[in-house]
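[Archive record]
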Amino acid sequence: MISLDHIKHIYFLGIGGIGMSALARYFLFHQKSVAGYDRNSSDLSRSLEQASCKITYVDNPETIPQVFEDKKKVLVVYTPAIPKTNKLLNYFEKEGFLLCKRSEVLGAITHDMQCLAVAGTHGKTTISSLLAFILSDNKVDCTAFLGGVATDFGSNMRIGSENIAVVEADEFDRSFLRLSPNWALISSMDADHLDIYGTASHLEASFESFTKKVAGGEVIAKEGLKISSRYTYALNSDTADFSATGIHVQAGSYCFDLRYPEGICRKVSTGLPGIHNVENALAAFALAYFQDVPVSGIIASIKSFSGVKRRFEYHVKTPSKVYIDDYAHHPKEIQVAIQSVRDLYPERKLTVIFQPHLFSRTRDFMDDFARELSLSDQVILLDIYPAREMPISGVNSEVLLDKISCKEKSLYSKSEIPNALPEIDVLMTLGAGDIDRLIEPIKTHITS
């Protein structure tokens, strides 16, 4: 494991990423000089620039600040999303700088903390954000590294005690195997990142390896997952250690009874929309419960938690028009998001704008994407967001569009949105690429 004791300057390749920017904030708080590179400016990178972080959007070694020339005091952090052709990466490698992946640095920072790690192919951002909020709301100081911007913190990073860390444990590139968790929660293990794992069984094996790293505490898992765990949670279960039953919508909120090992809490409510957030709240409750947070405090925090940006986030909510944005980029996530809208607005027309993320994911789940998107009344597809990938022959949004069974379906470029939008009743934008840049234009279009 790397030692950070002698490091004074940290340079991030891909600093605008959600995980990278959280680490950058951590080092800025600890009085390190921080700089970095990203391809494009974003809200996250601009926020870092306002906090005195020097960022370049030009892939040129000449842009590196002079203070980063002392190799003995410099750490270069990069993500697997940085291509091997990146000139800055090649410069740092050639000159012999200390280079580490983001996951390795996160593992080093949290190694000596009580590490509460939340893993899963879906739900981990909301669960870890809610857990961090529950702890802090109940005077349990913690540091949190999150995969989204928690509304209550206004950030993807909570700076707090160096004794407890809440960490979103990312399975991409097997990053979570760098952590040393004391407690771990696993929410899901649906096939994903097959460009990394190859098969679903290899993905599941990696999760099992992750559970073997837990020391001092236990593993909590969603009931039904084929994973080693001491405790389980589930909706409407008679056998799970933690269960939510009697789930219903009341005044726009989900209400339920929550059973836990020592009793039951009646009429629990969460302000977050979507039945999947009942499950996420149950998961966060379970992990907080084992940290000795009072049950009454946990329930109160679940009710007051404001959510995470781009996780079933309302942007327009009037009697005549509704606009929700969500990060969903996997078929299962799309299915859950659409079903949640159907539960909340059963008689209304649902239009979905979807931006596929990665050529490989679109190829691997083409039929699944088509099936789940067809659950909506109208589908508008955008071109595939490539991220770190090059195009794959025969994989494009036109092929996906042909497989969707909706009567109303179309393909547009981002530049045509929002002017090409039809009359809106209930609208959802879905995707993990740069579709979030359309949120404000769409919101303005709908409300004008």
Remarks:
- The longest helix spans residues 275-289.
- The chain has three domains: 9-106, 112-304, 313-447.
